[in-house]
Amino acid sequence: MRVNAMVITAAVALVGCGRQAIEPGQRGLRYNPHDGGVKPEVMQPGSHGLGWCMFRDCGYIETYDVTYQTKKETVFTPSSEGLAMNVKCSVLFRPVISELYALHTEIGKDYYDEIVGPEFRSAARNVLARHSYTNLVGQLDKVEDQVEEELRRRTHGKHVEIASITLEEIKYASPEIASAVEKRLIGQQEAARQKAAIEAQAAREKTQLELAAAQAKLKAETEANQARLQNDIAAEKSRRDAELALLTAKNQKEVLEQQIAIDRLEAQQKVIRADAAAKERSLLASAKANENRADAAAHTAFTVQAAGYDALGKLGGNGTTIFLGDWSRAPSFLWPRQYLTPPALSPMAPASTTKPTAALSSRASPL
User: Fold this and answer.
1) With a threshold of 0.85, does the pTM exceed it?
2) Any residues with CB less than 8 A from the CB of 160 and at least 6 apart, and which?
3) How far, in Å, CA of 36 to CA of 20, rounded?
4) What is the 3-state secondary structure (H, E, C) of 128-152?
């Protein structure tokens, strides 16, 4: 990069002003020899001016690839059995953009060879040595996560981001070891298969025994539950019958009390009606007496006399005149014409010591 900067400086010397481009996927740090060296500001992709470069060194821009990069490593390590293995693995990484100035000043552009690579190989050997060959084959994801965690711990604070670890190939260092391991693995697999078959048979027998025991237990529990349920039903029925009998007696008592209350009420009503009837008769008698007294007070001697005349008139019939008293003093219109005489010849002329008490006439006249 220094050669490129010198070429750029030489190229722009004729025009007096230098420029440098930062490609996409890169970031840059400005180096100015006349202004304190490298600046901490991280420069973005694009074309950047370097200043006036006619008769002086304008410096340059140190660029870093900030995209994810992959490096492959072959790690020679023993397994947990002590057998040598060659493991091909890869790491995905990139620099932390915000810490680019610290990475440049503390480590430099060769940060993989200085930090990431050695720590990656050491972390991989440390983790792989804790596993056997069979475990590595069957647990690759778990082993990769362990290597990644170990590498991140080792590179913490080194301004590098570790994205992932991949174990691509695992094999023994020599064919003899691989053949011996393969035979041993075949034997282990056969033994494991036979052991698994025996364990499966034992498990089946155990399962059958447990199933029979469970069925017997279930049958006993079912019978006990049925008996308990029947007892509960009988007890519940007895309780309900007792409650029903108690409720019936209570209802009968309430009905009897209500009937007694009704009879008492009817007796009270009869007494009330009898009192009312007595009061009514008393009031009627009092009213009748008052009426009689009023009638008696309303009759005078004249009304009695008129009533007597009326009764005598009805007694004699139509056309009958009844005169009470001295007939000689009777008015002349009461006598028929043929009985009227001059006063000298009148029957009333001679003095008579006998006074008739009544005179009858065939002519009807009002009293």
Assistant:
1) no
2) 93, 94, 95, 96, 103, 111, 115, 116
3) 19
4) HCCCCHHHHHHCHHHHHHHHHHHHH
Torsion, CA 171, CA 172, CA 173, CA 178, rounded to 10? -130
State the burial class of residue 13 (Cβ atoms within 10 Å of its Cβ: 0-12, 13-18, 19+). Answer: middle
What is the domain partition of the chain in residue ranges?
2-65, 69-173, 300-340+356-367
Instruction: List the strands of the sheet with 69-78, edge to edge.
Output: 69-78, 84-95, 160-172
- How far is the C-alpha of 162 from the C-alpha of 155, rounded, in Å? 8
The residue assigned the tokens 């000298």 is 344
- What pLDDT, on the 0 to 100 scale, is given for residue 132? 80
**CA atoms of 15 and 10, how far apart (whole Å):** 10
Coil, helix or strand for 317? coil
Question: For 88-117, what is the mean pLDDT?
Answer: 94
Dihedral of CA atoms 250, 253, 259, 263 in degrees, nearest 10, equals -150
The CATH-assigned architecture of domain 69-173 is: 2-Layer Sandwich (3.30)
Q: For 134-173, write each residue's pLDDT tens digit.
A: 777 778 889 999 999 999 999 999 999 999 999 988 877 5
> Would you state the structure tokens that stand for residue 162, as one six-digit string?
């570790």
Q: What band does 56 get if pLDDT is binned at 50, 70 and 90?
A: confident
DSSP string, 240-266: HHHHHHHHHHHHHHHHHHHHHHHHHHH
Place of tokens 């490129």: 4
Mean pLDDT of 110-122: 94
Element (H, E) at 121: helix 117-128
